[in-house]
């Protein structure tokens, strides 16, 4: 049992590092993606919603401490990703279809949570290539929420569906000894 918990904690630490590194890369390249939830999604699928939520929260706390304290409130988005993916993976087999459907759900839920935070912290801008769309939507008379929400939906459709499919593909590509039900069985 102790080895199992230690293995899970090591996987969670790797997932947090993956979230941070991919988030830094996409942010510095100003891509219309975030990719900072791939580790959260993987852990949520493998170990459940609470581990996924913890990985999401710790990711944002660490990036807030290391890089920018304004990242910390966005932990609510990353926690929601861990919970939603974890509960879906617990209820249904994590297949291509369930990963796509989950990605679509996340594409709506994440901006609903993140848009008010983004408006409060950054005035609605995302720091990605879709900021021009935000400014144009505001210029033509839309509210700050609508102007910020629409670009986030676009970013999240690409990001969350892609991240969920990527995790599904990664799980499919893992060698048999790392299969979900075998890796953390009582035989360790």
How does this structure look, described?
The chain is mainly α and 188 residues long. The chain has one domain: Arp2/3 complex 21 kDa subunit ARPC3. The protein has helices at residues 2-28, 38-47, 49-66, 75-91, 96-122, 131-139, 144-173, 180-183. The protein is globular, with a radius of gyration of 17 Å.
Overall CATH class = Mainly Alpha
Query: Strand tally, please?
Result: 0
The proportion of strand residues reads: under 5%
User: Can you tell me the CATH architecture?
Assistant: Orthogonal Bundle
Tally of structural domains: 1
**Overall 3D shape:** globular
Alpha carbon gap, first and last residue? 8 Å
Per CATH, what is the topology? Answer: Arp2/3 complex 21 kDa subunit ARPC3
Sketch the topology as an H/E string, one letter per element: HHHHHHHH
Largest sheet: none
- Helical proportion, percent range: over 70%
Which class do the helix and strand fractions yield?
mainly alpha
What is the mean predicted local confidence, pLDDT? 89
């Amino acid at each position: 049992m102790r080895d199992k918990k230690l293995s899970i904690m090591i996987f969670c630490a790797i997932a947090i590092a993956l979230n941070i590194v991919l988030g830094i890369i996409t942010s510095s390249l100003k891509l219309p993606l975030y990719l900072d939830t791939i580790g959260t999604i993987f852990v949520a699928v493998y170990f459940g919603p609470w581990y996924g939520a913890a990985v999401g929260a710790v990711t944002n706390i660490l990036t807030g401490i290391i890089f920018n304290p304004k990242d910390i409130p966005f932990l609510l988005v990353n926690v929601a990703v861990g919970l939603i993916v974890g509960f879906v993976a617990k209820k249904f087999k994590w297949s291509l279809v369930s990963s796509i459907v989950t990605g679509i759900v996340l594409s709506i839920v994440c901006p609903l949570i993140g848009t008010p935070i983004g408006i409060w912290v950054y005035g609605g801008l995302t720091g990605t290539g879709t900021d021009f769309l935000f400014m144009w939507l505001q210029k033509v008379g839309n509210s700050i929420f609508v102007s910020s929400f629409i670009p986030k939906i676009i970013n999240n459709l690409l990001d969350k569906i892609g991240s969920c499919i990527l995790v599904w593909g990664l799980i499919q590509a893992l060698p048999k000894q790392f299969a979900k039900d075998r890796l953390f069985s009582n035989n360790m």
